[in-house]
């Protein structure tokens, strides 16, 4: 049996290892650590390419957060409730005492309108805040944005509102509000497509 003979060393390989070019070769093959904005490829759909700044990303994250959506829905619900309260109070004046004089003063009518507007505004604000907050939390937990989020949120919101009247009212409220939310969501998606 013959002894093992080491093959001759390539002189170019010796120069390559002495210069520590293995690191440069690895960086070249794997990729460098520096990513320049000019190397980013953003597919164009419509219009010019705009890269968002950090401030724009921060504002977008704030606007898309659950507390912001809930507070916005609360404010919009308050305004919508006030408008509905004003409309209903003008249609059905509240006569509390049938034996009282039928001619009401303007001050009494305005007081009734104010109380009706505040009542509706408060209820719509609570309804909007709870529904929007629950829907956003469900969407965040599921990681999907589809019709089921509105249905689940409608069930939770209707159940919470109906629980004031008891368990049976809570169950009917949950089922009714979930069905209503599903129908509205279906209608809105059909119009959008």
From TrEMBL:
Pfam families: Tim17 (PF02466). It comes from the Eukaryota. Signal peptide: none annotated. It is a multi-pass membrane protein. Keywords: Membrane, Mitochondrion, Mitochondrion inner membrane, Protein transport, Translocation, Transmembrane, Transmembrane helix, Transport. It is found in: Mitochondrion inner membrane. GO terms for biological process: protein insertion into mitochondrial inner membrane. InterPro entries: TIM22 (IPR039175). GO terms for molecular function: mitochondrion targeting sequence binding; protein transmembrane transporter activity. GO terms for cellular component: TIM22 mitochondrial import inner membrane insertion complex. Essential core component of the TIM22 complex, a complex that mediates the import and insertion of multi-pass transmembrane proteins into the mitochondrial inner membrane. In the TIM22 complex, it constitutes the voltage-activated and signal-gated channel. Forms a twin-pore translocase that uses the membrane potential as external driving force in 2 voltage-dependent steps. Component of the TIM22 complex. Belongs to the Tim17/Tim22/Tim23 family. This is Mitochondrial import inner membrane translocase subunit TIM22. It comes from Parnassius mnemosyne.
